[in-house]
Amino acid sequence: MINICITSRLSSLPIVIAYKKGFFEEFDTKVSLHVNTHHKGVLALLESGRIEVGEVPTISYLQESFLKKSKIKRIYKGLFLYHSPLSFYSRFRFQPEDLTRNKAYFIPVPHINSVERLFAEKFLEEYAPLNPVKVRFTDTPGFLEEKEFQKPSCLGISSDPFLSPFLKGYHDFKEETNLPLFKSEDLVPSTLLAFSGDCILKMGRNASGVLLAVKKAIDFINENTKNNSSKIWEDLNLTQFYPHLRAGDLKSILFPHPLIDKGIFSYHGNIENMYPLLKDTYFRVIRRVLTPEVVKPVLDFSEILEALEPKKLFDVRKLNSFQNGGAEKQYAPAPINYRKLNAIRHLIVDVNSVTLDILQGNFSSRLNTDETLLLDNRVKYLINSMLDSFNSTLELQKEEIAELENLISILEIKLDRSAVDLQYSEEKYRYLFEFSREAIALVDAETGNILEGNHQFRNLTGYTRGDLTKTTIEDIILGDQIAPQLKFGTNQTQDTMLSLPDLDILLRDGSKLSVDLSFTSILLSPKKRYQVQFRPNQERKEQERLQHEFISNISHELRSPMTNIKGYLEFFKTDKTLAYNNEHKNMLEVIEKNVKRLSFLIENMLKLTTSREKDAPEEVVEIFDPVPVIEDVIHMNSHLAKGKSIEWELRLKKGMYLKGIRFEFSQIITNLYINALKYTMKGKVSLSLEEVVPGKIEIIVKDSGIGIDPNYKNQIFDRFFRIPSSDNRKIGGTGLGLSIVKSLVEKMGGEIFVESKLGQGSTFKVILPKTVISS
Question: For a surface tag, which of 411, 503, 518, 530 has the fewest beta carbons within 10 Å of its beta carbon?
């Protein structure tokens, strides 16, 4: 079994294709394929003999060929794998004068001894010869190239759009820079297939099978790309070898790609394209100048390609390329005296072996130890402890990553659902907004600009969509009618629903229209907005006028006959000459109660009309003690409680005074007290008056009656409103009492509140300002 190690870069694609298509088995060669992320790891594994075959940079193989580190040649060439049309790319377009020595630049490269590294050095020399800068080169795995490229201190990268697909959207210096380096249309041999020395010595025929399989894979790539066989690429399922590529990128890279047609995958290489890069360039270890005459024999693959033509298995050991691999003249360091190796050197070898195990993914590899107390053995214990600690931390991080991936998946699903729901809600709101029967406009809460008006609003005002984009709500509403309530651009604007009746707005034709406005604050995208409804109020005002006129006429018409009825009733009651029996007396009492009831109703109706008349005569305001007024109201209406089992509770604190009209205050107490008696069949009625807060007199009327439905709690103070229920219809009434109470309380400068539970009773609280009498 031959172990083949590749990198995650697309330059190793022929090896992957040969593995996926089973080309190795065709030549009786069994292989195991695993991915390493970096050329450096592949080189280390080849040099140590841990793997048999791998992909290495061409320049790294050249360096290896000119070095002799042991008696056995460690790396042998096989075939060219990838040829790159190199160019220099950057995130921004810079000029030579833009480069500064004071800034620390770096350039990511696949290997410190690679064609890309030499190309970047040569480009900077030719592009900015008068402004040389120092650049740090960093070994970068293929899946980290884009991340390193995005860093601010990265000057650029030498590569091509096939190996680095993310470069398509960035600046390519080949397009505008007229340098000799960019003039050639030929490709530079970037990487090649390499064998370890042990593989050549022990498995010569299997190495021949690897060469034949890879050669067939290169032919397969070029042939199927030209034939546009897209289904073949889908069947290969290469994403497991290149997981760092974005979804869909792999297929678009492989089929069809102009660089493949150009010949980036070819076992025929033109090494003369490398000479401009090697000229005047020193290897950091060899310290020698590489001339074309020296390099050419090392990268001569003609003998290997001729042997592969029959496509039959052969033994590579019979070829001169594998008998005398490398350069004719090698430059070795000082000879190593292996007899002088000490324990420290043995330790270094062991650590190197464990490092290679870890590079292959064997994280459980450890140094062999014994029970001696030698220095190297104690160091091994420490290193093993460190590895155990790192391994446990790595396992914990893997678990955390798995949990985070699951959480991210769940959040993505929820986010998708929320996005769909939000889109549906927005579409639904827009439909309801545009086709609403009400005239509605959306207003920016910060600036007051009208953002949009629906169809009904545009018909009402005559403004077009174009007009609204240049109009604010204050331009339409005349005067300072909304300034006290809404202050745009400040934090003092009310957030709750706000109703503003009887406002004049300016129409597009210059005329005025009286409307009722309601402002409702909403939150959209993610700023605050106002939804403003415009309701023309001409019809409402006309109805109120007719209603007011009708009530006023009826009240005055009823008052005259009622006065006559009262007079005749007094006559019959006081005339001593008339003989009444008990039945007659009961009839007179019934007539008197109903007369009082009708008189009270007429007074309420008159009070309602006079409170709305602007030209009503001024009434006499006095300062009075409210307690006697309350006692008179209770005494005059006590007959309403006859026949009911009601418990009474009075708590009246004397010595406090109110300012107002005594009769109006009696109307407040009368309506609240009568309601408590009417809606309580049995239980308790209480009335209290006290000073709970300094300067405020609090009057509470509480009953244990039928209570108020919470759905109608805000409507009970409206004129003529009565709660629709069977109990209410039996009791009767006009729906004017609480409306009169509220208007009179507000006239006296007070407030009224109600608390109620259905079936448990109601509590009305009236708070009036206390008047202090100076002595």
Answer: 411
| Residue 773 Cα distances to 161, 288, 434, 658, 770, angstroms | 96, 115, 60, 10, 10
Give the count of alpha carbons within 13 A of 321, CB side only.
22
Instruction: Using DSSP, state whether 516 is helix, strand or coil.
Output: strand
What does the alpha-carbon distance between residue 139 and residue 284 come to, in Å, rounded to a whole number? Answer: 16
Query: What value does the mean pLDDT of the chain take?
Result: 81
Q: At which residue do the structure tokens 């050991």 appear? A: 317
Residue written as tokens 């409103």? Answer: 721
Write the single-letter amino acid at 62: L
- pLDDT tens by residue, 122-136: 898 888 887 778 788
Residues of the chain falling short of pLDDT 50? 282, 285, 334-341, 492-493, 614-617
If you count them, how many residues does the chain have? 775
Inter-residue contact 135 to 124 (CB < 8 Å): yes
Amino acid present at 277? L
List, in order, residues 6 or more apart from 53 with CB less than 8 Å away.
2, 3, 4, 5, 31, 78, 193, 194, 195, 196, 199, 207, 210
Which of these, 566, 671, 564, 556, lies nearest to 602 by C-alpha position?
556
CA torsion, points 78, 82, 84, 88, in degrees to nearest 10?
Answer: -100
Q: How far apart are CA 398 and CA 599, in angstroms?
A: 89
pLDDT of residue 231: 67
652 beta partners: 689
142: exposed, middle or buried (Cβ count in 10 Å: 0-12, 13-18, 19+)? buried
Bridge partner residues of 342 (DSSP)? none
Instruction: Work out the number of other CB atoms within 10 angstroms of the CB of residue 392.
Output: 10
pTM of the predicted structure, to 2 decimals: 0.47
- Tell me the angle at which helices 582-612 and 737-747 cross, rounded to the nearest 10 degrees: 50
55: which strand partners? 193
In this structure, are strands 188-196 and 53-57 parallel, antiparallel, or unpaired? antiparallel
CA pseudo-torsion sign 368, 371, 376, 381: positive
223 token code pair: 């042939």
Residue type, 591: I
Token pair for 352: 């190197």
CB burial of 524-550 (b: ≥16 within 10 Å; e: otherwise) equals eeeeebbbbbbeebeeeeeeeeeeeee
Q: Tokens in use for 453?
A: 């008006």
**pLDDT value, residue 357:** 78
DSSP 114: S
Q: If you ran DSSP here, which 8-state letter would residue 142 be given?
A: G
757 - beta bridge partners?
A: 761
Which parts of 71-130 fold into alpha helices (H)?
115-127
